[in-house]
Design brief:
By secondary structure, this protein is α+β, with helices and mostly antiparallel strands. The protein folds into 3 domains: 98 residues, Immunoglobulin-like (Sandwich), CATH 2.60.40; 132 residues, no CATH class; 203 residues, no CATH class. It is built from 13 helices and 25 strands. The strands form 7 sheets. The chain has a 6-stranded mixed β-sheet, with helices on both faces. Strands 2-1-3-7-6 form a 5-stranded antiparallel β-sheet, with no helix packed on it. The relative contact order is 0.09.
C-alpha cells in the first residue's frame, strides 16, 4: 500500500484520509478548539517526515509502529482554510488544504461566507440610497484588503474551478461562417457561384482531358484554387469573451494584492508580518489558479472584451453559465473597495460579523418597510478620494422613517451624566442593536427595543439570556419625580437558531420557549430568528414582528 496521511478526531475516533485523494468530509467535521491527530502510514521515510500547518511545523509524537509518523494539532479559535504541507526527504512537498469550521454552536463556514456576501450586498444597496453619488470602485490592490474578504474570495475559487470544468465538458458553440481556399481537385462540393467568384483572383488552368468533364459554360477552364464557404463551430461567443476577461481581471487583482501584502509591513508585530506573508503567498497561488482557468478551451480562442458580464440568454438558461454569473457577482463584491473594521475579522470571530450583519439587514428592512424617504444613512459611509468606501460601524444611528431609528453599538453611560437623562444606573452598556421610536412620533413616551445578537444555537442560547435581562433592567431614565424608571420596552436575542415549538410556551423547553409567540408577546422578551440566507421579506417580517410585540399589537 502506498504512503497516505490520515486525520483522526481525538474526541470521536473518526478518521479520514487527507492525502492523497482526500476523503469527502461533512461540514463541521473539523472544528475550532478541537484536537486532531495526523497519522502518516506505510511510509519508509516516516521518521524523517515533517508536517507544517500554515508554514509552522507541528511537533511530532512517538510513532506507534515502524513506517508511520504522528502529529497532534488543535486549530484553537481559528476557522477557515489552512494550508498543510507534508515534507519527505528528497521529494517535492505535498500540499493540501484543511477546512476548519466554527464550533457547531456557531453553524458552519458557509454561513460566514453568506454573511460577508450579504454585508457587502447591503452596503451596495444602502449606498445607492445614500447622498453619495460616486461609484464604488474596484480595489486596486494598493490598500491591503481585509481577512474576511480574502477568506470569502478564497472560498469562491474552488467553486469557480468546478464551474469552469463543467463548462469545458459541454461548452456553448456558435456556427461561424468562414472561407477555405482549396485546390480544384479537392473542391468537389464547390457550388457554381463559388467557382465563378474564384475566377477573379489566382491562376486559371485549362482542362486537357477529352472528353471534358466540366460544364459547357466553363469552356474547359477552371480556377487552380477555389474559395469555398464553410461553417465552423467556434467558441468565440460574447459570453466566453466576457468570462475570460473577468478571470484575467481577478487574477491580476490577486497578484497586485499579493505584492502589496508582501511589501507592506517592515516593522511591528512579528505575528502580523508572518500573517501578511502567508496571505501574500496564498494570493499568488489563487492568482495562478484563476489565471489557468482563463486559458481553458472555451476561453482560449475568445477575443477581448471588458471584464463585465451582460445577462444574456446563455447566462439565464444554461445551468453552468448561470452558476458562473452568480459566482462572478460574489467575486466582484469581494474585490470592491469597501472597507471597515468588521472585515478585519478572521472566521473565528464570526460573532462580531453576525452583529453587523443583523444591523445592516434590519436597516435595509426598515428602508423597505417605511420607505426610503425617511432613510438617512449619511453617517454610515465614509468616502475617500480613491473611490473607496469605508463602512462606519462604531456607535452609528440610522433614521429609517416613521419616527424609528436603528442604533448599532450605542453606548449608554450613567443616566445622570447623559444629556437626555437616559442611560445605565450602573456601568456603561453597549447593546448590539437598539430599535427606538422618538417620543414626538408617539405623542408621549418613546419606545426602546434592545436586540442582542448572539451567533449561537441550541443550548448555547441559554447562557445568553443574562445579557438581555441586564439591558432591560439596567437602562433607565430620570422621571419627573426624580426616581429612575426603565426605558426598555422589549428585549430580544437575535440568533440563527431554528426552534421547535409546542402549542403552549409552558410546555416548550428552552431555548425554544424564547421564540414562542405567546411568550414573546406576553413578556416582551425572548428571541427572534435571523439566519444567514434569509430573504429580504423574511428579515422585514422579523422586524415587523419585533415592533408589533413592543407595541402590544399589530405593526
Amino acid at each position: 500500500m502506498a504512503d497516505a496521511l490520515f486525520m483522526r478526531s481525538e474526541a470521536t475516533g473518526a478518521a479520514w484520509r487527507v492525502w492523497p485523494e482526500p476523503d469527502a468530509v461533512a461540514p463541521g467535521t473539523v472544528q475550532e478548539t478541537g484536537s486532531y491527530l495526523f497519522e502518516l502510514r506505510d511510509c519508509a521515510q516516516a521518521g524523517e517526515a515533517d508536517l507544517l500547518i500554515d508554514e509552522v511545523a507541528l511537533e511530532a509524537l512517538r510513532s506507534p509502529t515502524p513506517g508511520s509518523a504522528r502529529w497532534r494539532w488543535s486549530p484553537g479559535f481559528h476557522a477557515g482554510v489552512v494550508d498543510a504541507e507534508l515534507r519527505l526527504p528528497n521529494q517535492a512537498p505535498r500540499r493540501f488544504d484543511i477546512v476548519t469550521d466554527p464550533d457547531r454552536r456557531k453553524l458552519t463556514r458557509d454561513d460566514f461566507d453568506t454573511m460577508v456576501r450579504e454585508v457587502l450586498d447591503d452596503t451596495f444597496a444602502l449606498f445607492a440610497l445614500s447622498s453619495f453619488r460616486k461609484a464604488i470602485a474596484k480595489g486596486t490592490g494598493n490598500r491591503p484588503p481585509a481577512i474576511a474578504r480574502l477568506e470569502f474570495l478564497r472560498s469562491r475559487i474552488g467553486e469557480l474551478e468546478d464551474i469552469v470544468a463543467a463548462i469545458e465538458r459541454n461548452p456553448r458553440r456558435m456556427l461561424k461562417a468562414g472561407e477555405a481556399v482549396l485546390p480544384y481537385h479537392r473542391a468537389s462540393h464547390a457550388t457554381g457561384p463559388e467557382i465563378l467568384r474564384s475566377f477573379r483572383s489566382g491562376r486559371v488552368v485549362r482542362e486537357t482531358a477529352t472528353p471534358s468533364r466540366l460544364p459547357v459554360p466553363l469552356q474547359g477552364f477552371l480556377p487552380e484554387r477555389i474559395r469555398v464557404r464553410q461553417r465552423q463551430n467556434s467558441f468565440d461567443l460574447p459570453e466566453h469573451r466576457q468570462m475570460a476577461a473577468c478571470l484575467r481581471s481577478w487574477a491580476a487583482w490577486l497578484t497586485a494584492v499579493a505584492e502589496t501584502l508582501a511589501s507592506g509591513r517592515q516593522g511591528g508585530d512579528a505575528g502580523l508580518r508572518r500573517g501578511e506573508a502567508l496571505w501574500a503567498e496564498r494570493c499568488r497561488r489563487l492568482a495562478r489558479r484563476v489565471g489557468r482557468l482563463a486559458t481553458a478551451a472555451p476561453f482560449a480562442e475568445a477575443g477581448d472584451a471588458p471584464p463585465r458580464l451582460t445577462l444574456s440568454s446563455v447566462f439565464r438558461h444554461d445551468p453552468a453559465y448561470r452558476r458562473f454569473y452568480r459566482v462572478a457577482q460574489d467575486m466582484n463584491l469581494g474585490i470592491a473597495a469597501v472597507f471597515g473594521d468588521f472585515l478585519n475579522l478572521p472566521l473565528a470571530r464570526t460573532f462580531e460579523l453576525y452583529e453587523l450583519w443583523c444591523f445592516l439587514r434590519l436597516v435595509r428592512a426598515g428602508a423597505e418597510e417605511f420607505g426610503p424617504e425617511g432613510l438617512d444613512i449619511r453617517d454610515l459611509f465614509i468616502g475617500d478620494s480613491a473611490g473607496g468606501v469605508t463602512l462606519a460601524t462604531g456607535a452609528v444611528t440610522v433614521p429609517v422613517g416613521g419616527g424609528w431609528k436603528l442604533c448599532f453599538q450605542k453606548q449608554y453611560r450613567e443616566f445622570w451624566v447623559e444629556p437626555d437623562g437616559q442611560g445605565s444606573y450602573s456601568r456603561t452598556m453597549t447593546p448590539d442593536v437598539v430599535v427606538a421610536q422618538e417620543a414626538a412620533a408617539l405623542g408621549g413616551d418613546g419606545r426602546v427595543i434592545v436586540l442582542d445578537a448572539k451567533y449561537r444555537i441550541d443550548e448555547g442560547l441559554n447562557d445568553a439570556l443574562s445579557s438581555i435581562h441586564t439591558y432591560r433592567d439596567a437602562l433607565v431614565r430620570e422621571a419627573a419625580s426624580g426616581a429612575a424608571e426603565g426605558i426598555v420596552t422589549a428585549a430580544y436575542l437575535l440568533t440563527p437558531h431554528l426552534p421547535v415549538l409546542k402549542p403552549g410556551y409552558q410546555e416548550t423547553p428552552l431555548p425554544g420557549r424564547l421564540f414562542h409567540p405567546d411568550y414573546r408577546a406576553g413578556f416582551r422578551f425572548g428571541a427572534v430568528t435571523l439566519r444567514p440566507g434569509m430573504t429580504a421579506a423574511e428579515i422585514t417580517a422579523a422586524l415587523c414582528l419585533v415592533v408589533a410585540d413592543a407595541k402590544g399589537g399589530s405593526p
